Each structure stands twice: as C-alpha cells, then as structure tokens.
Amino acid sequence: GSRPPYTACINNLFNRTPKFRIAFLQNVNVDYVTKLILICVCRPQYFRNPYLVSKFIEVIYMHSPEVQGTRTPLFERIITPSLSEKYLLPSLLTFYTDVESTGEV
C-alpha cells in the first residue's frame, strides 16, 4: 500500500539531513511533527500501516545521540513531553519485540 505523501516529506526532511546540517533544525518549528511522531509511535493501534510507525521510529533513531554524536533539538523535543515519559519506552520495546519475533515491521 501507499503511504501518505506527508510521511515521505517528514522522512526525507528529518532522516536524510546530514549530520553537518542538523543545526538548521534549531530554527525550524517542529512541534506539530513532534506530536505526530509521538502519536504514531506511542499509539500504533491508531494506524493500519506498521511501516508508517517504523518510519517515525527511524526519525527518532536518526536524531539520537548514538547516530548524531549529540542530542539534537528534535530528539530533545521528542523525549521530553509527558507523553514520552509515560509511553515512549514501552511503545519502542513493544515495536522492537514484535519485529524481533515476527521478522516484520
């Protein structure tokens, strides 16, 4: 199935930004994108397409300190809301457990 066009735009903008250009995101208002990412990852039952959820998890990973060498503004915005504190880690663990047990996204 096809994914919504905005998903491709978000994926391209946030996952394909080279490390040396990550600073430009400090000047971009990503609050709505952050909320969308958190809703998709923390409430995957709202979406029929697990590929969509995996793309948003990829955004989180690509902006993590492990990949970037430092915490990016987008990563900070994703991990600090109260929704993240309560639901993000369990949702990520469930996602990776499902992938590991089924071999599929």
**Annotation field: number of helices:** 6
What portion of residues is helical? Answer: 55-70%
Report on the biggest sheet.
Answer: none
Give average pLDDT, whole number: 78
Element order: H for helix, E for strand = HHHHHH
Structural class: mainly alpha
Low-confidence stretches: none
How would you describe what is shown here?
The chain has six helices and no strands. Helix content is 65%, strand content 0%. It has 105 residues and is mostly helical.
Set out the fold topology.
Elements lengths: L4 H11 L15 H12 L7 H13 L2 H4 L4 H7 L2 H21 L3
Helix pairs in contact: 1-3, 2-3
Short description:
By secondary structure, this protein is an all-alpha fold. Helices cover 65% and strands 0% of the residues. It contains 6 helices and no strands.
List keywords for this structure.
about 0% strand; mainly alpha; single chain; about 100 residues
